[in-house]
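Hey,

The postdoc asked me to send both predictions to you directly instead of through the lab channel. I've kept everything plain text so nothing gets mangled by the mail client. Protein one:
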Amino acid sequence: MPKINKVVLAYSGGLDTSVILQWLVDTYDCEVVTFTADIGQGEELEPARAKAKKMGVKEIFIDDLKEEFVRDFVFPMFRANTLYEGEYLLGTSIARPLIAKRQIEIANKVGADAVAHGATGKGNDQVRFELGYYALKPNVKVIAPWREWDLSSREKLMSYAAQHGIPVEMKRGKKSPYSMDANLLHISYEGGVLEDPWSEPEADMWRWTVSPEKAPNKPSYIELTYKKGDIVAINGKAMSPAVVLATLNKFGGENGIGRTDIVENRYVGMKSRGAYETPGGTIMLKAHRAIESITLDREVAHLKDDLMPRYASLIYNGYWWSPERKLLQTMIDASQESVNGVVRLKLYKGNVIVVGRQSETDSLFDSTIATFEEDQGAYNQKDAEGFIKLNALRMRIAAKRRKKK
């Protein structure tokens, strides 16, 4: 074992990281500093402080990062209309680079020579955390207990916790709880019955959203105001980024919006099944595409769509701090200068329906040209003949060649 004097642990106070805290002390005989990020998981974080204190931790950091999370990570991602494999809104993926950033900042502040996380050796998060660590502090020592110890299952973790007097919340008899991750953008569920991709998620598993069947019979209407691709107001009321997302989560949850059940391809090579609730993000994606539909040039919009899957993969695989992600972000952000205006939405039983979009300053929609009525000469329909013939030229040449053969 390399000599470690002080390590900063990404600490939630849950089963995994509570066991890791004790294990680090026993294994490395080092001082442990805990860091808990408040990114809107909706849990009381003071119990994590109390638990860490009880276990002898002297330096405890609990940081409110909600505004930074939405402003500097969620919003930039949504400017690209990002979806991984056509379905996943990347709620867990986008949180990891922020946690890694703050963890390294704390390590520098307290003079720690190592950082530790609770991600397993089977998942994506180990990659996301560690790529972030190394990008921001190249020589940092990384401790990943799941790759070192022999506590290879959640049952063994629970047994270890019981032996060391570490309390475990959400016990269901002898059954392991779901593996859950929550932040302002989403809540994810893995494990349990979800490990069988044929099994429907249990109805009582969902926490943020009502089922579409039980959603109100009357639709809700909301208006979102955009400035440079970001939502700055809801129903005319100016809001900070974190408040915007929290408010949209409430609207979406009440109307049964944002549930997904996905089998995804992990970066490490395996397929995994997860269920997600992303009510606010589901609304944001639909609305952002709507405002772009009237403010973005056609070729700019199509180029963004071409690049989006690559951008999504970079975030999913942990490359937020990479030069290629930053390069793409620069292009995406430049495209948003004209993405200003208002989108009106109808929320109804799991559906997000665009019913209006307008931009007083940046709309490219010209009704005098697009109209089916008299256009007063704004568009000469005879011009279309030459346009069509020129675009058909290569196909006409190919057809003549086939005819000769």
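Protein two:
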Amino acid sequence: MPKYLFMVSYTAEGAKGVLKDGGSKRRAAAEKAAKAVGARVESFYFAFGDADAFVIAEAPDHASIAAVSLAVAASGGARIKTVVLMTPEEMDQAAKKTVGYQPPGK
């Protein structure tokens, strides 16, 4: 199944929720949201820096992950960036494909 990385930054309201309920409840909420679309949370970590949490999930398709991302963004409690992750073998396949690309001005 494809894997995805969510980089989550809490809004002030979202941070208040984490202070009130703790981190385990956020992980449980992520797991519940993933399960609702047939996905699975592989790992969930809180962090310092630009992102407050990093979540890696696997899902059957992009639309399922987009649904989770939209739900999180629409909640107003967090901003989310979603990254499609690729295995080294998938990159091997990409590297073997021929692409006829012409850079601008050439």
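Summary for protein two, as requested: The longest strand covers residues 3-10.

Thanks,
C.
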